[in-house]
Amino acid sequence: MHSVSLIAPGKINLDLEIIGDRPDGYHSLIMILQSIKLADKILLHPNGTDLLRVTCHHREVPSNQDNLAYKAAALMQKEFPSLGANYGGLDIIIEKHLPVAAGLAGGSADAAAVLVGINLMWDLGLTQPEIEELAAKFGSDIPFCVGGGTAIATGRGEKLDSITPLDHLWLVLAKYRSITVSTPWAYKTYRSVFGHTYINEPASLASPTAHIHSRPLVKAIQQKNAAEIGKLLHNDLEKVVLPEFPKINQLRETCQNAGGLGTMMSGSGPSVFTLCASETEAEAIQQQVRAKIPDPDLELWVTQLCSHGIQVISHPKH
Ligand code: ATP
Questions:
Q1: Which helix (H) or strand (E) covers residue 14, if one does?
Q2: Which of 2, 10, 59, 206 is most buried (most C-beta within 10 Å)?
Q3: Spatial distance between the Cα atoms of 53 and 51, rounded to a whole number of angstroms
Q4: Domains of the chain (ranges, CATH numbers)
Q5: Angstrom distance (rounded) from CA 108 to CA 110
């Protein structure tokens, strides 16, 4: 068995709408998810033992069974026990480039890379939908991270419908290193404040998703209308996160005032992004935001949207 190296891109939400509660306790969502070029690198290496071991030098990322990449490998061993026993353990080496706990699905991307990598290493021949089905067993963002690109996600985020991939736009990502927002807290608070607006009948839950392709943002994406896409960015979780975290709110305003096509918080935050028409524009906005907020706690990145999910960069058999 050979080693495999993979690229695991992060994601932003161009749209995040909370529709209601589901009988399984999750929220029913409509999201438009978009891969970005900023990515982790994952190396899977047979270690000659029967153990799974994770190495990641980022201090906020667990190197034990709590790591989502570990959980993905353990899931594969459970689903395919005889192959797992036959091929033995793996070292999972995570080179972290994606900011952690940032609403960019870093952990989910790493887990998706492990599923794709083990599929190759064990010659399983699973198709992308089959890998996505396995991914849905332990995380709502993981199925999207497998194929990536641009997709409408419904259900709890695991039902995917790929649309015209957007890869011509750039973005500035901004995040305070020391601020973390708990995703469960954000959804729980949203429920307590906006729960009265929820659609809870199982039959009615289907109706907002019925005409999803005729939504203005989906049409703008299909027409690659950058100005419209920028205007139509939306995230319901801003309604609870921004009032609670004034620094994120102020960062969002600073980014928005610096220009670009549109600014929005990604997922449950704390990352904020400004969509830009070009790399030059993104770099100019990055500089302006840095000049307005010279706080060393503020991290900024310029990256591009991308049209793919997990990519295999080296696998000697192929
Ligand atoms: P979510 O929205 O699911 O909370 P996120 O995209 O905001 O995720 P992640 O970077 O995935 O944030 O990290 C969330 C938490 O998951 C971190 O606090 C970290 O301790 C834990 N974690 C587990 N495995 C990983 C991993 N491989 N990479 C990053 N974080 C991980």
A1: strand 4-21
A2: 10
A3: 6
A4: 4-163 (3.30.230.10), 170-304 (3.30.70.890)
A5: 5
**Section 251-269 average pLDDT:** 97
Contact 251, 298 (CB under 8 A): yes
Both structure tokens of 197: 């607006």
Report the DSSP beta bridge partners of residue 262: 275
pLDDT score at 162? 92
- Using most ligand atoms within 8 A of CB, pick from 16, 38, 57, 61 the residue to mutate for ligand 1: 61
Nearest CA to ligand 1 atom 17: 101
What is the CB neighbour count within 10 angstroms for residue 118?
27
Q: What is the pLDDT of residues 189-223, one digit of tens each?
A: 999 999 888 877 666 656 666 678 888 999 999 99
Whose CA is closest to atom 2 on ligand 1? 103
How many Å apart are CA 87 and CA 48, to the nearest integer?
9
pLDDT in tens, 145-184: 999 999 999 998 889 999 999 988 999 999 999 999 998 9
| Ligand 1 neighbourhood includes 183 CB (under 6 angstroms) | yes
Pocket test of ligand 1: the residue of 100, 114, 310 to mutate, having most ligand atoms within 8 Å of its CB, is: 100
- Give the integer Cα–Cα distance in Å for 213 and 223: 12
Sign of CA dihedral 307, 165, 69, 122: negative
Q: What is the pLDDT of residues 9-49, one digit of tens each?
A: 999 999 999 998 888 888 899 999 999 999 999 999 999 99
11 classed as catalytic: yes
pTM of this prediction?
Answer: 0.93
The residue whose CA is least distant from atom 18 of ligand 1 is 101
